[in-house]
Design brief:
- The structure is a single chain.
- With 315 residues, the protein is an alpha/beta fold.
- It has helices spanning 44-60, 70-85, 133-153, 174-181, 185-189, 214-227, 243-248, 266-272, 296-314, and strands at 89-97, 100-108, 113-123, 159-166, 191-197, 208-209, 232-233, 253-257.
- Strand 6 (208-209), helix 6 (214-227) and strand 7 form a beta-alpha-beta unit.
- Helix 1 (44-60) runs antiparallel to helix 2 and helix 6 (214-227) crosses helix 9 (296-314).
């Protein structure tokens, strides 16, 4: 997330049912309704394995994965290789910011209605001061693993699925703004929803849901209700992450967040656990934002919520 200027749900759906009738069909019986397949559980161990790779990339490249630096390009190459192997059509979009070349990575799943696109995205860059494992390796890894889960499941949604990893978010949403600004009005209109995931494994987590679009907001809230986890409306990151350019262009947006530099209140600690009077992420934009700066429970819940929303909104 850029600097400010100042379990599984029990309601996650049912697998498609097939009624086997012995002795032939029943005369006059109505066909069973088609039921949307449930989103799979996203193994948190897989998400953490991606974070380990991003940490290794940062360590080998000056301790960060920032825009215009070798660590960012290596991170993008890692994600792209996974998606290519899973059968995605990937495109690298190049731009320039602050005198350095930056890159977005866009991955399209085969099939689905190209006139109705559901996107999920996250920024892949870190700040120069650290590896950026919560901010935003967490969102990037969860979006990647969800994309891979779509491929593993052979999921064929009604809508078209697109996943994105943005560059230079930390410099002011540069990559996502470049992408949106370079879409034709026709192609912008085809995006039925953009889901953003920025910092979803904070070590002292809260559970925050964007309230920009009622239908997307309800999808995430329904998931967490099924877990028995209360949520709050996200306010700390308003306008500070990659959903903002989409929202400005009229695209419905939503997303999840577990908190950055704001302090967890006593009331929030009472309902979520953790430590009141302490930041949600004490390592925000710092060198200590490493793989040890992740809350596994928050990462697991938000990764599963991400997949749930992708399945629900694209079916």
């Amino acid at each position: 997330m850029k600097l400010s200027v100042s379990g599984r749900a029990s309601t996650a759906g049912l697998a498609t049912a097939v009624l086997l009738l012995t002795g032939g069909s029943i005369a006059g019986a109505a066909p069973a309704p088609e039921v949307t397949a449930a989103a799979p559980d996203i193994p948190v161990a897989n998400v953490k394995a991606h974070l380990t790779q991003l940490q290794s990339i940062a360590t080998a490249n000056g301790g960060n994965r920032a825009h215009g630096r070798a660590g960012y390009k290596a991170s993008l190459d890692y994600v792209k290789a996974k998606l290519d192997a899973a059968g995605y059509t990937t495109v690298i979009q190049q731009f320039t910011s602050s005198g350095r070349v930056g890159y977005n990575l866009i991955a399209d799943s085969p099939g689905g209605d190209a006139n109705r696109v559901v996107m999920a995205g996250s920024h892949l860059d870190s700040v120069t001061s650290g590896a950026g494992i919560n901010d935003n390796g967490s969102g990037s890894a969860a979006v990647l693993e969800t994309a891979l889960a779509v491929s593993r499941a052979g999921y064929q949604p009604t809508k078209h699925l697109r996943f994105a990893w943005w560059g230079a978010e930390e410099l002011g949403l540069v990559g996502s703004r470049y992408y949106v600004n370079n879409l034709s009005s026709t192609n912008r209109a085809k995006i039925s929803g953009y889901l953003n995931f920025d910092m979803i494994g904070s070590p002292n987590p809260g559970y925050f849901v964007y309230d920009d679009d009622p239908a997307i907001e309800k999808t995430f809230k329904d998931y967490f209700t099924g877990l028995g986890v209360p949520t709050e409306i996200e306010t700390e990151g308003d306008g500070r992450s990659d959903h903002a350019p989409f929202k400005s262009a009229g695209v419905p947006v939503g997303g999840l967040f577990t908190g950055a530099s704001r302090t967890k209140t006593a009331a929030q600690a009472a309902k979520w656990g953790g430590t009141s009077g302490q930041a949600f992420d004490r390592c925000y934009h710092s060198s200590c934002d490493t793989t040890s700066n992740i809350n596994d429970t928050a990462l697991n819940r938000n990764s599963d919520a991400l997949a749930y929303a992708v399945w629900e909104l694209s079916s």
